[in-house]
Amino acid sequence: MTLEDYVECILDRDRKTFYDDLECSGLEILNNKNKTPIIADFTEYSPLHNGHLFCMNEAKKQHPECLFVAIIPGLFERNGRGLPYILPRKKRAELAISLGADIAIEGPPMGVMGSGQYSLCLALLFKALNADYIPRGYISNDPKFKIILEYINKGKGVAPKPYKIISMEDKKVLLNGKLSNDDYVIVSLAKSLSKINFNYENKFIFIPRLENVSGTRIRECISNNEFNDLSDMLPKETINMIEKEIQLNHAPLHDCRLNKRLIYNANHLSREDLSNLTLIDNKTVNNIINNRPFSNVDELLDSITFGFSSHRKQRILSVLEVCIFKDEIHKYINNYPQKIKILGYKNKEVLNKFKVNLENNLKGENGKVCQ
């Protein structure tokens, strides 16, 4: 099986799962206190590097009484920038458990959502878990950004606006300018948690980002099979996992798209279907219609408009790979999470404690809250 065939199997399987989930009702949240407190950490782990491990260990050190729950983005294996992950989520979950997480569960399909949409899904998942603590790494040393973190720790809502961050309470401008992706996620998540009335006062654990760990450099080295240059950024378990998956021709996936499929879809979908795809704007639809047929992805990229997000074009490619429509995404979000999907766990004792929490706080369709 070629790497592209492997990716095709994953996307076809995930597309079926998406439509199965679409027919399920959302979980009813009872807002009961967890029997065993949890640290809920949303991280892509693509791949799991020393910065992720540092954040995990610092959170566990502060709250050793908690279960550490790693929330790992799921369906379609595309990140918030619309780019493929290096490893599929099952392997990323396996790594997280081997390096200290107690439970790994599946998060939302980030690559086919706008940033506000997947931030809302994450907030809904934190509420379903009744997260006791939420660790987040941050980058900025700007004193004004530290004020924003203080706002958030007091449970006060903040909101990202074009080139500024404001207080949701009094609309006061807290910071001018753009944030890094990691810092933007913090602000966006706080806004979404406020919107769904989840009390996050004193729940965030803000941890300064570990220096000398570059995701870009890691991906470049993996693409070039230069693993000797990664020992100072990746745990040996991560390197071993990636090398093993490469031998099986199951990695690395971050440079692999279903180019033939997305070009075929761009060339053959009707104007109506293109217009109904999630994230796609009318100008992009017109460009595609007027410029097709396309023979390669670079030609297609030239027809996709820029947005406020620098990652918009890659997200559109991900949408064209799997053809998910706007109304389907809206329905999916309205019922999210449909169930808690467990990807891995440390041992049976930990799993049972986690399930007791879920059964204490959630009601699901036919009595099922997790799988």
Automatic annotation (TrEMBL):
Domain of life of the source: Archaea
Domain Putative cytidyltransferase-related C-terminal region residues, every copy: 142-344
Entry-linked SUPFAM superfamilies: Nucleotidylyl transferase (SSF52374)
Cited Gene3D superfamilies: 1.20.58.620, HUPs
Alphabetized InterPro entries for the sequence: HIGH_NTase1_ass, Rossmann-like_a/b/a_fold, tRNA(Met)_cyd_acetate_ligase
PANTHER family the UniProt entry points to: TRNA(MET) CYTIDINE ACETATE LIGASE (PTHR37825)
Protein's UniProt name: Putative cytidyltransferase-related C-terminal region domain-containing protein
Phylogenetic placement of the source organism: Archaea, Methanobacteriati, Methanobacteriota, Methanomada group, Methanobacteria
